[in-house]
């Protein structure tokens, strides 16, 4: 009950900040997403899909900046959305670029898998959905830990990846709930297609913020406790 009250309190108190974050992230994702959708619908498919990953290089830095801004909200720290987002993006864009591209490729593969199954069922055997769902769950449990650490901790990428895997399984119930709560918005959207297209503008305005706020409310305490981030920031 306390978590529900806190969630709605944050949404109400930080609504316009969350909307601005969502729009900033969408702007970083737009080139890659637009080219991917063009390829998905058959316009120079193979070339478009390849180009969509080449132009996904800002995505990793944008996710790091996004996570930093949301965790500032969770810490009840006053934030300056544009300044914080721009600063964190510049600081971490290089380190997060390749992980961001790989994560984007994974998400696009999942969109293709589930989209083909839902709307072109003959193209995908249902047996592939089980490993697809398992990989998606593990990815959703591990990946946020990576971007959270990049936002706050100065470590080599390899060590951050190792930490992320260890943290996700050491805090498995919390990681699972973060993945489940963070994904519920998007699962509902795809399952309810085409009727859910009516709310697509709202998702573009607020969807990523809603999803990642739900996710980080579960994951942030584990990362904060493990690395004593708030304690370090107060010094």
Describe the structure.
α2 (15-40) packs antiparallel against α4 (57-74), α5 (81-119) runs antiparallel to α6 and α6 (129-152) crosses α8 (172-191). By secondary structure, the protein is mainly alpha-helical. Helix content is 84%, strand content 0%. The mean pLDDT is 89. The protein has one domain (2-234). It contains ten helices and no strands.
Helical fraction equals: over 70%
What gross morphology would you assign?
Answer: globular
Gyration radius (Cα, Å) is: 18 Å
Give the amount of beta strand, in percent.
Answer: under 5%
**Total domains, how many?**
1
Average pLDDT reading: 89
Order of helices and strands: HHHHHHHHHH
Number of DSSP helices? 10
Concise overview:
The protein is an all-alpha fold. It has ten helices and no strands.
What is the topological layout?
Layout: H1 2-13, H2 15-40, H3 45-54, H4 57-74, H5 81-119, H6 129-152, H7 157-170, H8 172-191, H9 200-227, H10 229-234
List keywords for this structure.
mainly alpha, single chain, 84% helix, 0% strand, 235 residues, 10 helices
């Amino acid at each position: 009950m306390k978590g529900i009250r806190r969630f709605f309190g944050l949404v109400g108190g930080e609504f316009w900040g969350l909307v601005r974050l969502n729009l900033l992230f969408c702007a970083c994702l737009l080139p890659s997403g637009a080219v991917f959708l063009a390829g998905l619908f058959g316009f120079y498919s193979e070339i478009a899909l390849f180009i969509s990953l080449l132009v996904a290089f800002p995505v990793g830095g944008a996710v790091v900046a996004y996570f930093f801004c949301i965790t500032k909200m969770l810490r009840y720290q006053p934030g300056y959305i544009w300044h914080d987002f721009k600063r964190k993006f510049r600081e971490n864009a290089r380190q997060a670029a390749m992980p961001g591209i790989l994560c984007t490729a994974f998400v696009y593969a999942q969109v293709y898998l589930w989209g083909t199954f839902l709307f072109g069922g003959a193209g995908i055997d249902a047996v592939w959905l089980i490993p697809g769902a398992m990989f998606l769950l593990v990815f959703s449990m591990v990946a946020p830990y990576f971007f959270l650490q990049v936002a706050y901790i100065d470590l080599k990428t390899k060590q951050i990846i190792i930490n992320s895997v260890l943290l996700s399984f050491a805090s498995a119930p919390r990681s699972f709930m973060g993945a489940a709560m963070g994904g519920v918005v998007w699962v509902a959207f795809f399952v309810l297609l085409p009727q859910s297209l009516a709310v697509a503008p709202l998702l573009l305005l607020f969807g990523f913020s809603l999803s990642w706020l739900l996710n980080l409310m579960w994951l942030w305490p584990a990362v904060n406790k493990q690395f004593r981030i708030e304690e370090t920031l107060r010094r």
